[in-house]
Design goal:
The complex is a heterodimer of chains A (285) and B (375).
Chain A: E1 2-5, E2 10-15, H1 18-28, E3 32-33, E4 43-49, H2 52-56, E5 60-65, E6 74-75, H3 79-94, E7 98-108, E8 111-116, H4 123-131, E9 136-139, E10 142-146, E11 151-153, E12 159-162, H5 165-172, E13 177-178, E14 182-185, E15 188-194, H6 198-201, E16 207-217, E17 224-226, H7 230-240, H8 244-247, H9 249-261, E18 263-269, H10 272-282
Parallel strand pairs in A: 2-4, 8-16, 16-18
Antiparallel strand pairs in A: 1-2, 1-3, 4-5, 5-6, 7-8, 7-9, 7-10, 10-11, 11-16, 12-15, 13-15, 14-15, 17-18
Helix pairs in contact in A: 4-10, 7-9
Chain B: H1 8-16, H2 26-38, H3 42-51, H4 60-93, E1 99-101, H5 102-109, E2 121-125, H6 131-140, E3 143-145, H7 150-159, E4 166-168, E5 174-178, H8 192-196, E6 199-201, E7 207-209, H9 211-223, H10 231-244, H11 247-260, H12 263-276, H13 284-290, H14 296-310, H15 321-338, H16 341-361
Parallel strand pairs in B: 1-7, 2-5
Antiparallel strand pairs in B: 1-2, 3-4, 4-5, 6-7
Helix pairs in contact in B: 2-4, 3-4, 4-6, 9-10, 9-11, 9-12, 10-12, 11-12, 14-15
Classes of the chains: A alpha+beta (285), B alpha/beta (375).
Chain lengths: 285, 375
Amino acid sequence: MRWIDTGPYRFRLDCAPRPVLAAVDVLYGGAASSTEPSEPADFRVTLAQSALLRRLMRPQVVFRASGAEPFKPVPKSQAYPFLEWGMNWCISAHDFQRLLIHAAVLVRAGQALIFPASPGSGKSTLAAYLALNGWSLFSDEMALIDLQTLRVAPMYRPICLKNASIPLVRQWAPEALMTKPTPSTAKGEVSHLMPQPFACFRKLQPATVVGVVFPRFDAAAELEALEPAPMDTFRALAGHAFNYQVIGEPAFHALGRLVDATQHLQLRYRDVAAVESLLREVFAL
Amino acid sequence: MNSGKLSTDQLCHLLQHPETGRQFSGAQWESAVHILREARLLATLAVMAEACGALATYPSYARRHLASARNYAARQAVQARFECDALQRVLDGAGVQPVFLKGAAYTLTGAAQGRGRIYSDIDLLVARDELSAAERACRAHGWYPQPLEAYDDRYYREWAHEVPPMWHRIRGTCIDVHHNIIPPVSGRAPAAERLLACAHALPDGKRVLRPHAAILHSVVHLLLNDDVNYALRDLVDLWQMFAALEDEAWATLVRLAEDCGFSLEVWYALLLVKRRFPTCPAPLEVMHALRPCHAVTLRRAFCDQVLAPALQPRHPELRSLQSRMAAGLVFLRGHWVKMPLSVLARHLGYKAFRAARDALFGPYQFEPERGAGRR
């Protein structure tokens, strides 16, 4: 059994294959514990082995939480990334108090930028680069936005790197804490990177969002930055939100205020270092 | 931290007296949140605790989860009203007069048991001779059944009291069109006209069952069903409905139960609800009128020793050997009362074959569709 403290959400991992527990211990470090903490767990999750014969031939694991099995089982070799995706599901299927937007969140000088993006846009690679270069990682996967204060809360979760970005990040930071790559998942080859130790994470406080950046990696592009119309930013944010439809009106108003209070950029880039200096210049960070 | 294990009675006590949650330890709250979430009662507790002012006194952990559940339920109620409007229009156009049942009806009437109730489909009752017109109209407006195994499709067509569930192809909402409240093959189905006659129109024209008939339907769902996953939720519904039943409606309930042959079931339901929710009214003369003539002691024992433990949330923390055996018995009984023996033997034989096959190969090997979204 493991307890994982991600900050805003605590998970109790009731059962999982041994290599998964080992990966949890290494990646989460001080945030993982094998003794019951004093705070109650928000989600109880299980990675169970599937049916009898399956254990012998091509073994699979099933993810369960709150009596639900939201996904089809995957081969046991993919158990670790499966756990991370299952944890994301728990949050997005149960939290209707904060606005949850599918986005990376990075903070510098107490100011947060959120990077909503579709798969393949290079969001995670950019997040990894920024996190390894002095920015604080609040999340690679979802921006947790308070409906009243509009502040974004930090969450201690790894970055999910895919395919070509895995060797790239290895090259940038050979010492970085990363899981052994898992080949042929639904997202291709993946590896999880924890760019900051738990001790640093614990010092982070919710931050004000100053910008919304839509990144788009293009190997052939010169760095290009456009300012989208506020309406387009609003629509894109609503489209990337997990629980906008459920929260309804309060989410609509919060998003409207967020769009009014922030600056927006649409980026096409191939060089992450150039993006970093552009962001620091544009947002005066 | 000390063990936070809760019993079903403790959870029911919490639902009846939300202010007692103030004294819960963190571990007890963790347990309560997880069990109630699985039993689909988290939002119900949120609504009840909010109404009596207890919610604000809860620890932040409980407040957070309850508020999220309440927000979800509120959104679902909006969606349900929207779907009911759409269905009413579609069926009206086909000359069908639907009666909304269960969750959807509770939401439409604004009844206490509808507040914070989570349900996964919209149930409708139509007259048998309007069934195919209703099905055609739904299909023509975007609701489609999912591909079924030939066996399951036949199960619905030949034996069931409903047509296979249909999902809206854009909104994903699910509807269940019934022509009775229990499969006619059971030999226990009441005359559908008797039930349809218990419907009345709401101010906007949508039809729902009157409270006494809604109770009867809920009782049948609770006790003559093989699916007891949400039994505690059904008991909560019944508690709320009994509590709101007007004095003169009790006699109407007794008469309807007699006419439909469910007096024993309503009697069991009152005993069960009263046992879990002692504040629930159960007038003596009603209990007397419903009480079976024979084997009262034996039946009371069956109610206490088998039904009550079986109808608990299926959460590992609440499971005991007794509750599991009882749930097994109730599962068998649910089938037994729904099907004649020859049909039952075939049905259980097929289900056993499928269970054995799934235990070996996993449920996804033969029916990939069953994977996603299974609850």
